[in-house]
């Protein structure tokens, strides 16, 4: 595939559409639900591999690692076309949207050659070992300890939580404390960790839905060779910030919000409700929020398509997504009745939403960030940074 | 807070707390969701004398007032305990008001049997109920505590206005279909009458309405308790949990949220109290205040339950955490008894009637 | 009037009712609006004098200063009876509810003898000189300066704002800085100031309604004799806290919230609206808030009636009062239409409410206070207290 | 924020800002309330070429799209300027779509005359309008900018569906009654037709609706501007104002509030943008998005305007402070064009029509 510019983007888009027409049957339908069965997971992974082989994932990544040297506008086109057809994109969005770009930014040549190609095809999928029981929003205070051994390797001990997709993953990016003598942001290092190493235990964490969307991961005397380190020792916070920046882009370009179609179908299921002034006005208000969410995502995608990096205000999308979805679920169940809570789409959303709010930064943290970075409001006075205790 | 209670009432609350604290009620709420069967709390209610709270002393009851029942329900709510009082007590209150047979009332007061209220006004959508003299037809959906009750106090419209009838649960033409519930503590059923026969209760139209209004205000009291329980849990977490070097409760975002929980809870509690007093002192305002209490209790729990999860962060959204159980309670309670709008509409109705 | 207890409260209440039946014609109607004309003010003051002469204001105050040595239950009864009849209470609620009790608590015998009797009859009314342009919520940072002169008198310079009723008042309670060398809460002193002293200028401050509900008060080289001081020098914050405590009681026992009656009349004015599901549900929700407000006030009044002092949670009433009134006004005007904004009750409330929110402590300050005092949440870390600069 | 604009659009915004900044528009909004007469901004609109924004170049217009008009309206809103474009531009757009006489369009494009839209769908309550061929009867209440317009584009229902007519403002049977307004910048009138005669415009039913939808989205754009202006003022105050030793903007309570303003404004702006694009690219969705934009713009200004006062504390509630003017703008705008519920209902209508 040759380099894309405005003149041949049109041709490329036509090819994409044709390809999608021909391959859509292999794609899972777009839904807010996580895949539940092994079969669903395998099906979705196969779809990512198919897209990768056709050059529709990792488009902007360097061709030497399996990418296509493409432009952001192409990524946006793929997303738009998939959305219009109600099809899923890649299975391993954590790898594709967050970790892959981070490896490309901070990894060694060897790491890129080893990790990126199987990541693209979902042959090996990824997860993040960041949050801990004692370090949620305040990620820089993680206490999982990686101690340098005499042979240059690292001995890791600690516990991580809220790890999505760990049960499917081959690798994880790990944030660990390697120096307890310096200020908390400065003593951190990141690693790329094969999850089959001795001493790693993955324990599913059931959510309100009853399913295990997250995991706890225990690291007991896990030995990491130094070539698993990404970035220099002490640069872990820098690498993490890079990754969180990519996460923001991912969040801004389309999120697991309630879809308007199912909402309208549920609310309008009974003819008498379609004429009920109270229900109509509520539907109009909630749907307007969801439409605003779509329209804002479009603006962010356009920005990404033009090669710019969305600012922290893209975090507003996350906030609206949760608030609007909560309103939408409330309305849908109010109209459909108690029974809708028992099973099906609305039951699942009602149960899943509270967890979504905390994932990837709480609303409070996002509001601080946006208030300070976008509106230029002064930060809160913070207590003097303490050196955290090691294990 | 600013509740003026008699010594007897203080004792009632203490006794309720004591009786309920001996049971793992919150754990049980989770166990049911995991498919286990939970211990029935009805024996607890019977032992504590709550089954006879609103029945006269002539029929082995305690002869107390709805105000006292609300205090018990608030304690139940705080612990997510459902002792089937929401169905039983309003039914007993109607039997009492109608001066029903002492043995009929007594068996229920002593807790040998349970009663349940089946009022079409509080039914879910697709409820249809018609009464012709003593014959009942139709289905009331989403009835609390009907399953396992032996006597149903059915309220519907006859040609002359609202009427109440006693229908035996095992009478011909009565079908009680238990439904699974999102909040596992509840007993929710669809009750169908296929020409079932009942006995009319002698009650004025305004008094027939009392049953549903009483159920609403008891549910409101229970929701106040649940919201208050969630707040207590959240408050403790906010004091203990450190982020960025400070207890999270020291941040205004969290602090003001907890105060908002408190504000809504206190508003709802004030109305529960006011409704309880109106029952004794100003019965004409009871319906208005009971429905307003229900509206505000929904507002309190709608806000408190999800925010409890949010303040707890990721851990609050796990199956193992109690926050989930309060959330399920809130989502389900909002849709009980005809849902949130039914009560708001009743408040408007009562106020517009004064014009 | 003899001392009241449970046994003769009933008799006393009967007398009160008879008196009100006979005297109601002299009372202004209860309204959320401030009196506008001089005539309205005079009428209301006369009503307070009439009530005072009959022993229905200052009931719990010592008889040696014109009170009746009564119990709080009587105060509550008077308020309930007035409310039931839709009649106003005393005109000078600032004097009766806040300043009078403060003088009784901290004033000298001479001050009490001089100030209290005319205060009771509204012969002399009162206002508060507390807030400043640079000290709103953070009252302890006032910079109005009172400098001790060689003859023992005080020379006062500064500017005060948000002074209600200054245009009618004979006296003010003044919070001023008398020591700039100590921590900010410790350098304050309070004074009882005749407003006709040389150097005092009162300038009305127009509000959104177009009326001047507040005033700015300028103090230029005002000389106060030392007998105008209330409390010791440096005890001004203590005296102020006493007064703010009484203010909380006043707020808790009934506030200028939207009344349910007018709301229902406006919303239900048209038969078709009375059947509109959307309007009915909104009315039910808003009215429930207002009913909750009434019910909570009742609980607080009962507490006062039993002689207890309401806790900081009484501040919740203030918050609900503003929020519920805003919702009520929004609904009323939505139903009545744009024209309702132009004049009349709703126009006035819509314009007056935003100012009410800031009066007597913003919502944010109240939430901090309640969160810390009632829920026991930890305070925010505050910057080290700075010694304010004097003039 | 993330708005991708062409150079021409950037220039349009700059020019609008330049033209409006030379007028004391905010001060004028207060002066009108004090009984003074304000300078008309219509000449500004004419000089800047806004009067002909949506008229074709064949009739001396600029031939631009609603998207461009929205950019201008946002700048107007930011400064509380009302140049009577809300009435004029939608009327011109209908004349343009119907291919009306070039001189009729040209006089308006050049700004020699003003047009106004009179659509019964956006009338206040008690609006009644009937059209029989070319005869118009009834009263439309709360019409923007009708006073001073020489041509009214009237939209109502004929037996065959929605129709648009051109009615001369001075035709027999037309009465335009100007009303005083809470927001002094507005021109609001009740327009009565007592059998007045007009000329039918040749427009498909869907295109007849465009006039009202365009007015709504222009009003939405204007509200976004007003909310954004209020936010800017509030943000500056929050940075400067010190309480308890810190800038108040450093407190989460204030900070999160300002972010909430921003969030609502950006949501509304996204929909304004989307509606603007839909006009050109996907006209079937224009109505849906225009009404959704209106709903979200109301949410933005409803929140931002009072909170602007609150953040400013006591001073924000004074006559001399600009916050009051934004508040009046918000309270009044919410009730314009049929009020908030009309737009929400239209959104629901468009969505339910897809079932």
Q: What does the average pLDDT of chain A come to?
A: 89
What is the largest interface, and how many residues per chain?
A-D, 49 and 47 residues
Rg of chain B, please? Answer: 20 Å
**Strand portion of chain B:** 15-25%
Shape of chain B: globular
Which consecutive residue ranges of chain B, at least 5 long each, have pLDDT under 50? none
Main β-sheet of chain B, in a few words?
4 strands, mixed
Distance between the termini of chain A: 51 Å
Q: Identify the strand order in the major beta sheet of chain A.
A: 1-4-5-8
Helix content bin of chain A? 40-55%
The overall strand count of chain B is 10
**Rounded Rg of chain A:** 22 Å
Short description:
The complex is a heterotetramer, with two copies of chain A (391 residues) and two copies of chain B (355 residues). Chain A has 391 residues and is of the alpha+beta class. Chain A is built from twelve helices and eight strands.
């Amino acid at each position: 595939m040759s380099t894309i510019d405005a003149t041949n983007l049109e041709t490329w888009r036509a090819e994409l559409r044709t390809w999608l027409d021909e391959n859509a049957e292999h794609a899972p339908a777009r839904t807010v639900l996580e895949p539940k069965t092994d079969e669903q997971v395998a099906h979705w992974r196969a779809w990512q591999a198919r897209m990768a082989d056709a050059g529709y994932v990792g488009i902007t990544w360097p061709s030497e690692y399996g990418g296509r040297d493409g432009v952001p506008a192409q990524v946006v086109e793929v997303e738009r076309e998939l959305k219009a057809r109600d099809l899923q994109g890649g299975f391993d969005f954590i790898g594709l949207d967050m970790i892959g770009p981070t490896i490309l930014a901070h990894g060694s040549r060897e790491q890129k050659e080893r990790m990126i190609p199987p990541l693209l095809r979902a042959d090996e999928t990824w997860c993040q070992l960041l949050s801990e029981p004692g370090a949620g929003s305040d990620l820089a205070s993680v206490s999982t300890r990686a101690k340098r051994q005499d042979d240059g390797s690292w001995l890791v001990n600690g516990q991580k939580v809220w790890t999505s997709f760990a049960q499917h993953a081959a690798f994880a990016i790990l944030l660990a404390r390697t120096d307890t003598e310096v200020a908390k942001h400065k003593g951190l290092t990141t690693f790329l960790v094969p999850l089959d190493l001795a001493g790693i235990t993955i324990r599913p964490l059931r959510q309100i839905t009853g399913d295990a969307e997250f995991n706890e991961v225990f690291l007991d005397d896990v030995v990491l060779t130094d070539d698993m380190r990404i970035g220099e020792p002490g640069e872990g916070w820098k690498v993490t910030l890079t990754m969180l920046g990519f996460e923001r882009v991912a969040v801004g370009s389309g999120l697991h919000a309630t879809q308007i179609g199912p909402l309208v179908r549920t609310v309008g299921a009974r003819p008498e409700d379609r004429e009920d002034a109270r229900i109509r006005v509520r539907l109009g208000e909630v749907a307007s929020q969801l439409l605003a969410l779509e329209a804002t995502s479009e603006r962010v995608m356009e920005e990404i398509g033009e090669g710019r990096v969305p600012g922290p205000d893209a975090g507003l999308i996350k906030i609206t997504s949760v608030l609007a979805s909560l309103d939408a679920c409330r309305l849908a169940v109010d109209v459909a009745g108690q029974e809708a809570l028992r099973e099906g789409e609305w039951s699942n959303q009602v149960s899943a939403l509270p967890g979504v709010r905390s994932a990837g930064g709480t609303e409070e943290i996002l509001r601080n960030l946006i208030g300070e970075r976008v509106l230029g409001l002064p930060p809160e006075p913070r207590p003097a940074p303490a050196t955290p205790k090691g294990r | 807070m600013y509740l003026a209670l008699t010594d007897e009432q203080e004792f009632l609350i203490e006794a309720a707390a004591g009786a309920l604290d001996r049971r793992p009620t919150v754990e049980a709420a989770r166990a049911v969701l995991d498919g286990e069967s939970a211990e029935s709390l009805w024996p607890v209610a019977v032992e504590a004398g709550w089954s006879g709270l609103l029945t006269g002393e002539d029929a082995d009851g305690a002869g107390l007032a709805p105000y006292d029942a609300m205090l018990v329900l608030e304690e139940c709510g705080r612990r997510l305990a459902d002792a089937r009082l929401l169905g039983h007590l309003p039914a007993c209150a109607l039997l009492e008001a109608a001066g029903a047979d002492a043995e009929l009332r007594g068996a229920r007061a002593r807790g040998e049997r349970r009663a349940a209220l089946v009022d079409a006004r509080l039914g879910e959508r697709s409820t249809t109920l018609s009464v012709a003299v003593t014959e009942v037809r139709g289905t009331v959906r989403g009835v609390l505590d009907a399953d396992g009750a032996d006597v149903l106090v059915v309220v519907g419209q006859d040609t002359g206005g609202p009427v109440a009838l006693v229908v035996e649960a095992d009478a011909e033409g009565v079908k009680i279909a238990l439904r699974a519930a999102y909040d596992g503590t509840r007993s929710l059923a669809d009750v169908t009458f296929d020409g079932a026969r009942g006995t009319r209760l002698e009650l004025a139209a305004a008094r027939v309405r009392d049953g549903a209004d009483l159920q609403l205000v008891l549910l409101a009291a229970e929701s106040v308790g649940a919201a208050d329980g969630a707040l207590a849990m959240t408050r403790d977490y906010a004091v203990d949990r450190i982020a960025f070097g400070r207890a999270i409760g020291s941040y205004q975002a969290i602090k003001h949220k907890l105060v908002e929980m408190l504000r809504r809870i206190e508003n709802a509690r004030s109305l529960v109290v006011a409704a309880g007093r109106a029952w004794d002192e100003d019965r004409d305002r009871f319906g208005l205040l009971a429905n307003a209490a229900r509206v505000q209790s929904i507002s309190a729990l709608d806000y408190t339950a999800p925010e409890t999860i949010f303040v707890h962060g990721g851990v609050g959204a796990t199956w193992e955490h109690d926050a989930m159980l309060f959330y399920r309670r809130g989502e389900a309670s909002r849709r009980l008894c005809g849902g949130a709008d039914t009560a708001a509409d009743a408040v408007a109705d009562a106020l517009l009637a004064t014009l």
